[in-house]
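Go through this fold for my students:
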Amino acid sequence: MKKQGSLLEILLVSLRLGLTSFGGPIAHLGYFRDEYIQRRKWMTDKTYADLVALSQFLPGPASSQVGIGIGVMRGGLLGGLVSFIGFTMPSVIVLIIFAMIVSSFDVSDTGWLQGLKIVAVAVVAHAIMGMAKNLTPDLQRKAMALLALSVTLLWQTTISQVVVIVIAGIAGFFLFKGDTSAQNPEFKFPVSKKLGATFLALFFALLAILPIAREITTANWIAMFDSFYRSGSLVFGGGHVVLPLLEREFVPTGWLTEEQFLAGYGAAQAVPGPLFTFAAYIGAVIGGWQGGLLATAAIFLPAFLLILGALPFWNALRTNPKMKAAFMGVNAAVVGILISAFYFPIWTSSILEPIHFVLAAFLFSILVFWKLPPWVVVLTGAVAGLLFL
């Protein structure tokens, strides 16, 4: 692994990802792997898979938590913050501007957006190939990945991924306990266990205190902060799961109309970065750009507190000889989970006609065989979609 990087380097890399990472959380993990692991060698595939597995355990936006974790490992607490800012702010700015213009349009059938969906197919397929090669090298782990794929695809609930990862960890503990081939490099992690426990305590304290503060005060900003914080704290399964929570928090209460909510949802689908930035649109509709920034801070704060609280303990566990076997099983399950998500929703929502498959094959080829950078693939997919779809 390279030496610790500068905050400017982390910001610029994450900003480029924030401007080009279309396709949802699983696609984001593919973009992250291409940039951070394949190109820059900031960590190994095994370490990256461990971090992805941890993010599946925690509520909140999984891809954002992975990005924050990578930033922290690369540049300390400030590294995590600037990694988050770079990846998240482009879509936040666009959605706040859209909300303040107060116009609505339908982007669901535009060709360029369909092209970006197909880009996600190529990127995720590439990521799966690389991770499967490194993390499922034998028949036992291939079988575990297949089982994880099957269970998460046929049993689509908010807890299925967590259950699969737990079972895979237990199975790995017994199957691979005598295997010493998987070596995890030690990180000089900048957050102590004591500070990590403080972050976790703050997470639960805010979850308990904010609803009480909301009841004893009439300040709208406290009510907004509580709604967004609670939504970000109680969501497993990615950005799409948070949408019904936000709808129940803000539409029946009259803070915004159903039409405004759906218009913002359409805009959120058309921008790169995490879908949780939809909160910026809602906050801006309610309270201008200040409300947009408040909403963004509130919905992502749980992700920060949880990942910073969990990472010190995870780092100790992953280097424990007794836990390495369990993580071998977990990593194999992560591959299966990614393949499951590759089929649904990425493939099923993107490859609808033969021309879509042709474009996906072309984009995959220029990414894998011609080795063009992901941003070129994104631009090519958008232009091809605009011209041909």
Q: What stands out?
A: The longest helix spans residues 278-318. The radius of gyration is 20 Å. DSSP finds 15 helices and no strands in the chain. The mean pLDDT is 84.
